[in-house]
Amino acid sequence: MGEGGTALPWHVIRQEVNGNRYRVAACATRAEAQKVVESLGARGAEQRYWVERQSA
Questions:
Q1: Which of 15, 27, 46, 56 could pair with 32 in a Cys bridge, judged by C-beta atoms 3.0 to 4.6 Å apart?
Q2: pTM of the predicted model, to two decimals?
Q3: CB burial of residue 43 (10 Å; 0-12, 13-18, 19+)
Q4: What is the pLDDT of residues 32-47, one digit of tens each?
C-alpha cells in the first residue's frame, strides 16, 4: 500500500543469478517503476530487474 492506503500496482522485480526473485519496489505508475529499473540496472550488478503489474 502506498500513502493514504492506496495500492501501488507496479512492482519492480529482481532476479538473482541463483534464480531467487524479490519485489524491490512498488510504484504508482509504470513509468515510475521503469525509472527504478533503469537506475538499478545502471549499477552493473548481475541481477536482472523488470516491471510487473500486480494482479487485482
A1: 27
A2: 0.79
A3: exposed
A4: 999 999 999 887 767 8
Please name the amino acid found at residue 36: V
**CA-based nearest residue to 16, from 38, 48, 52, 43:** 48
- DSSP β-ladder status, 48-53 and 10-15: antiparallel
Is a pLDDT exceeding 80 seen at residue 13?
yes
54 DSSP assignment: P
If you search the block for the grid coordinates 536482472, which residue do you land on? Answer: 48
| All three cell numbers of 9 | 500496482
3-state secondary structure of 44: coil
